[in-house]
Design goal:
By secondary structure, the protein is an alpha/beta fold. It contains 15 helices and 16 strands. Strand 12, helix 12 and strand 13 form a beta-alpha-beta unit.
Length: 442
């Protein structure tokens, strides 16, 4: 099953399935990893992966290295024997009992259970386990043979709303819920919440990593998720006057919330990078609240316009390759194109309808092996840190800006902001300065 899209240079075919049976230097990560990260964005949540120790250990190490933070991650220790003989209930219940007994000071307010390929293939009844647990329990089916990190994150947010949000017919006009995609860093969620609060909204985000993996040193780190939204907040989300989705992947979450209350206003943005999208977002908030933005917002808009002028000559004469999650790729491509940049190729982790809106010569689902031939002509590549060693093999000097998962090369990933006027300004300067280094060497 295929969907076609007319690119800038040639007709391309954007396959909804990967075009080869093996990934070489993959950029895709599994659904359980996205689910684990989402549960870390819930206050006092215990993310519990229904899998073997190896699955959870990899996820824990992956996020520990990316965020440089202790990661709250547990697993049910499914072995080859229990995978065959156990119906699923026993290993889950024993894991919860052992973890809470071992950490007597740990009092989870939510158990976030997510599955892997092994337990999904076996068909464990993870839903019924909740009837035996006194602590609030959320289950989500996230087999790692389907989707990727982006969909695992979105499915978890959807499950939290479907299983725990109470139905309502009433709304609070000034209450706003943000549904951020998986590629949004903790500081970006924080900045977006502050931006909305500047318009007088009572603002929540689901999931909310802004107080969880934001680089803040505190006691008891790594035991439970410390997200800024609690299970009590999730219960009452259906009285939100407005829900804002950022990214195509989060539409299913908004749909689940609208089933709880059809009176909620849904605002969807495929990204929040660049002047046009930021203007649309501000205009939507102004329409609801009937107030002008703060002076600092207008000043940052002017700074972005100046940054677009300053970076135009470097970016406008350059060719780019972007790899990563679909919701991340589309925003970066449109911002670069707004100042004249040429996107040669976009290599995505999984298929998403939003990929068909990207105006590039090549847009496809693939891996870094597929991207390698496009690196040869690019002036700058936006990718995770695995692209670095590949670029060293190129004859041409190509700049690299690190984005997406994982980034083991740099510190402070959680504090990178690319959103709205302020973040877009910083992003353009980062790109332009990286281009200046490679272009001035010749």
């Amino acid at each position: 099953m295929e969907a076609s899209y007319q690119g800038t240079d040639e007709r391309i075919e954007l396959s909804k399935k990967e075009h080869k049976p093996l990934q070489v230097n993959p950029i895709k990560h599994s659904q359980p990893m996205g689910a684990a990260l989402a549960f870390m964005g819930i206050q006092n949540c215990m993310p519990l992966m229904h899998a073997s120790q190896g699955c959870a250990s990899y996820t824990k190490v992956f996020y520990t290295r990316h965020f440089n933070e202790p990661i709250p991650m547990y697993n049910t220790s499914v072995s080859d024997i229990t995978a065959v003989l156990d119906g699923g209930d026993y290993s889950i219940l024993m894991a919860i009992e052992n973890i809470t007994k071992k950490n007597k000071t740990m009092k989870p307010e939510l158990i976030g259970l997510h599955t892997t390929g092994l337990t999904e293939t076996k068909g464990d009844d993870v839903r019924s386990v909740g009837t035996h647990i006194e602590i609030p329990y959320c289950y989500v089916n996230t087999p790692d043979y389907e989707g990727g990190m982006e969909s695992g994150w979105a499915l978890t947010a959807k499950a939290l709303i479907k299983q725990h949000t109470k139905e309502s017919r009433e709304i609070k006009p000034n209450k706003l819920l943000i549904l951020p995609n998986v590629s949004m860093q903790p500081v970006e969620v924080e900045k977006l919440k502050e931006f909305c609060e500047g318009f007088g909204f009572e603002t929540l985000a689901l999931p909310d990593l802004s107080t969880s993996l934001d680089g803040y040193l505190s006691e008891g780190q790594g035991k439970l998720g410390t997200g800024a939204i609690s299970i009590e907040d999730i219960y009452e989300l259906a009285n939100s006057g407005t829900v804002v989705t950022v990214g195509e992947s989060m539409k299913i979450v908004a749909d689940a919330l609208l089933e709880k209350n059809s009176n909620i206003t849904h605002l969807h943005f495929k990204h929040l990078m660049g002047q046009d999208m930021s203007d649309n977002f501000v205009a939507s908030l102004m329409k609801i609240r009937q107030i002008e933005p703060r002076p600092l917002v207008k000043r940052w808009r002017g700074r972005l316009q100046d940054a677009m002028l300053d970076s135009h000559f470097l970016i406008g004469s350059s060719h780019f390759v972007v790899t990563g999650e679909p919701d991340m790729c589309v925003g970066m491509c449109e911002l670069l194109q707004s100042v004249g940049g040429t996107i040669d190729a976009v290599v995505s982790t999984t298929y998403s309808p939003v990929l068909e809106t990207i105006d590039a010569s090549h847009v496809f689902v693939g891996d870094l092996e597929d991207a390698l031939k496009h690196f040869q002509k690019a002036d700058l590549v936006i990718s995770n840190f695995h692209a670095e060693r590949l670029l060293h093999t190129q004859e041409k000097e190509t700049a690299l800006v690190l984005r997406g998962f994982p980034n083991y090369e740099e510190l402070g990933n959680q504090l990178k902001n690319d959103l709205l006027y302020e973040g877009s300004t910083q992003f353009l300067f980062e790109i332009a300065n990286a281009l200046r280094k490679v272009k001035h060497q010749h």
